[in-house]
Design goal:
By secondary structure, the chain is an alpha+beta fold. Helices cover 26% and strands 39% of the residues. The protein has helices spanning 22-33, 75-80, 98-107, 173-183, 218-234, 240-247, and strands at residues 4-5, 14-18, 38-39, 48-56, 59-66, 87-95, 111-122, 125-135, 138-139, 144-150, 162-170, 189-191, 195-202, 205-212, 215-216. β3 and β4 (48-56) form a beta hairpin.
């Protein structure tokens, strides 16, 4: 028996699109698709704020940007603030059994990291899940994994665009395809520069969101995180000349 939940015959549970400003980003996606995403109030203490749009068969699109209430540092916020357009950054698969999937991933040589369990209420409906990254490190083309114990029902309807396909490209396509096969993820990765793209069907015709994939692993990721943290610390406290120098790092 597969450990994964296949929605409409595909392993995609949801895909995250980053935007530099949540409200304007949600509105930009709405104009492009012809469907208005659901935008809940920001959650105090959470670094991101997101809107959601169903893609049919229980799949959904998540549009994420900074939570204006959040005052701390988070590298995701520093990264999305630099995006010039709505850009896919990550995607999720869903599992029936998080513990069994973790064991399968370990056997396949993958690391399950940054495990997080959460429970809250959306529009009076309990939402409860455990999620994690499939590592080591982070690659946009490599999915995160989630087990839903309770899901917001608005994600199950068909009041949104239709899902037409997910395209993943990476220089290490052969390794990733072997990993996907060992975990039962029926999603092909093409050889080439790191990229993630999703194609959707709308009343306006086919729409694609795509972008260079985000890669955070190894020493280069640590250096990038340090640079982002320095910029955050110095924001509003630097001269224009020093600020421009930091932006070029």
């Amino acid at each position: 028996m597969s450990l994964l939940v296949y929605r409409g015959g595909a392993p995609l549970d949801h895909i995250g699109i980053g935007v530099p400003d949540t409200e304007s980003g949600v509105n930009a996606v709405a104009r492009r698709l012809g469907y208005k995403p659901i935008l809940q109030d920001p959650v105090p203490g959470q670094f991101y704020w997101s809107g959601t749009l169903p893609l049919g068969a229980g799949r959904f699109l998540e549009i994420l940007g900074p939570n204006p209430i959040y005052k701390g540092f988070n590298p995701f916020i520093e990264i999305v603030k630099k995006l010039e357009q709505p850009t896919p950054l990550f995607w999720y698969i869903a599992t029936h059994d998080f513990t069994a999937f973790t064991a399968a991933a370990k056997e396949a040589g993958a690391r399950i990291q940054q495990v997080e369990s959460a429970a809250h209420t959306t529009d009076g409906v309990p939402v409860d899940y455990t999620r994690a990254m499939i590592g080591p490190g982070f690659l946009s083309v490599c999915p995160n994994v989630i087990q839903w114990r309770s899901r917001y029902e608005g994600l199950h309807d068909d009041a949104g665009p239709s899902f037409l396909g997910l395209t993943l490209t990476h220089p290490e396509a052969s390794r990733l395809n072997r990993l996907f096969k060992s975990l039962g993820i029926e999603q092909h990765v093409k050889e080439g520069p790191h990229q993630i793209a999703i194609k959707l069907g709308t009343p306006k015709g086919e729409v694609e969101f795509s972008g260079a994939g985000l890669e955070l692993r190894g020493p280069s990721a640590m250096i990038r995180m340090a640079n982002l943290y320095v910029r955050w610390l110095m924001r509003g406290r630097t001269s224009a000349r020093l600020h421009n120098w930091l932006e070029r790092l």
